[in-house]
Amino acid sequence: MKRLTGIGGVFFKAKDPKALAEWYRVHLGMDIESWGGMSFSWVTPDNPTGTGSTVWNAFPAETKYFAPSDANFMVNYRVADLHSLLAALRDEGCQVEDKIEESEFGKFGWVIDPEGNKLELWEPPAGS
Fold first, then answer.
1. How far apart are CA 55 and CA 75, in angstroms?
2. Residue 62 lies inside a defined structural domain of this protein
3. Mind giving me the DSSP string for 92-119?
4. Helix residue spans in 12-72 (DSSP H)
5. Cα dihedral 49→103→39→45 (10° resolution)
6. pTM confidence score
7. What is the pLDDT, as a whole number, of residue 96?
8. For residue 24, what is the domain's CATH number?
9. What per-residue confidence (pLDDT) applies to 49?
């Protein structure tokens, strides 16, 4: 089974997400969208049309979205088959959260690495 297919996003905590996003806009030329982050579109040999993206987003410092991790960041990894991967990770003794979210944005699940970092696993909707 193919597990990870890429990085879907990098998320981190910031004391002032809006000010930090503005710094990235001004100094690095990032096109910050109204939701506070940016999507980088990409092309790969498996994806010659460039369908797909990697998201960058600063979260408020007090966010609970990364819990139970105390880390100031969370990496979102693209996966081919979320349900199969989560089952395999459970079978391998990994700490997998019971919650799975499914929406028009795809399927999301979470696993905690041995150092307590929460990783988001994302199966994009078909065609993206």
1. 10
2. yes
3. TT-EE-S--EEETTEEEEEEE-TTS-EE
4. 17-28
5. -30
6. 0.81
7. 96
8. 3.10.180.10
9. 78
Does residue 78 belong to any structural domain of this protein? yes
Task: Assess contact for 64 and 11: CB atoms under 8 A.
Answer: no
Comparing C-alpha atoms, which of 64, 62, 71, 109 is closest to residue 88? Answer: 109
Structure tokens at 86: 């989560």
Distance (Å, whole) CA 52 – CA 42:
6
Buried b (16+ CB within 10 A) or exposed e, 9-22: bbbbbbeebeeebe
31 in any annotated domain: yes
Total length of the chain: 128
Q: How many domains does the chain contain in total?
A: 1
Q: Print the domain residue range for 91.
A: 4-123
Would residue 128 count as lying in a domain?
no
Paired tokens of 106: 């795809």
pLDDT along the chain (128 residues), means of 10: 88 93 87 91 75 88 95 93 95 95 96 91 86
* 45-71: b (≥16 Cβ within 10 Å) or e: eeeeeeebbbbbbbbeeebeebeebee
Radius of gyration of the chain (CA): 15
